[in-house]
Amino acid sequence: MAELENLTSEIDRLGAQLGQARAEISKRIIGQDQVVSLALAAMLSNGHALLMGLPGLGKTRLVDTMAQVMGLRANRVQFTPDLMPADILGSEVLDTGPDGQRSFRFLEGPVFCQLLMADEINRASPRTQSALLQAMQEREVTIAGAARPLPAPFLVLATQNPIEQEGTYPLPEAQLDRFLLRIDVTYPDRAAERDILIATTGPSEAATAQVFTEADLIAAQNLVRHMPVGDRICDMILDLVRGCRPDPAADPARIAAHLAWGAGPRAAQALMVSVRARALMEGRYAPSVEDIRAMAPAVLIHRMALGFAARAEGHDLAALLAREIDLVLNRAA
């Protein structure tokens, strides 16, 4: 009983702290409440997020603001076609000492930080993009045969331009699967854009205060994984993820009939932890059906691809996924 009371009091305390963090972020990120919520959920889940949207919608500004508010050491890498893996990870250089002795010295790359902003990640070649795979999955990098651990926490917030734009490369499927969430950043509505104009074109802009420390964030990430999840919610997550895998024999009304590849076990893990994170941000002690409904699109959309026939027939992946979520959750309700 004492352990349960301690858990609920920690959730209440952290919920209030997260409310302060959201308020600080909203001083600089106007009209993107859903984007901010999803980015915070990724951080609480100790996962990476892919911010998808056109240039000029505030993706870079969001990452910079979150680093300030969450108290994380951040580095930024601008991905370009000529960027090499060593430009991200670091490299060994040959030094000559005062006595003439030569030895190798490792120079850390920008990946050695707590929050890495990979700006326009899909403008680099696939070889360079794949340099982040080990860092994102194992929180370490291997250079010259030596494994070098990254600081904790280590999070990647990457921005991506639509693949239809010039000078972009598609991200490898293996790397897409390493992103806990894909967050779509869309145009603001008229009222929000008016507020942006007023807030950002004056002599000064709103300043943000630090709310979290790295220790606070690590404690919050641990708390998320201690939140209880009911059997009913667990079964819904399994039904949904398993239904988002290719099955040519499936009912044409289901998404499985139209997929070339789909969500694996990592998607189920991502959905399980992210619904806990959302429940925590909403001040609740356990995730609900609405948490699954809110988090499932961001968890699943980048882990699936339509088959050739489905694309030729004009099917839309987001629409099919939304219908599948409704079918699974309404059936289980």
CATH topology of the largest domain: Rossmann fold
* Main sheet makeup: 5 strands, parallel
Described by the principal axes of the CA atoms, the overall outline is globular
Number of domains: 2
Q: How many DSSP-defined strands?
A: 11
Q: How much helix, percentage-wise, in residues?
A: 40-55%
Low-pLDDT segments? none
Strand order of the largest sheet: 2-5-8-1-9
Mean pLDDT: 87
Based on CA atoms alone, the radius of gyration comes out at: 21 Å
N- to C-terminal distance: 30 Å
Description:
There is one protein chain. The chain is an alpha/beta fold and 333 residues long. It folds into two domains: 1-194, Rossmann fold (3-Layer(aba) Sandwich); 227-333, Helicase, Ruva Protein, domain 3, CATH 1.10.8. Helices cover 47% and strands 16% of the residues. The chain is built from 14 helices and eleven strands. It has a five-stranded parallel sheet. Strands 3-4 form a two-stranded antiparallel ribbon. A two-stranded antiparallel sheet has the order 6-7. Helix 10 packs across helix 11, helix 11 (265-281) packs across helix 12 (289-300) and helix 12 (289-300) packs antiparallel against helix 14 (317-332). It is globular. 37% of the residues are buried. The mean pLDDT is 87.
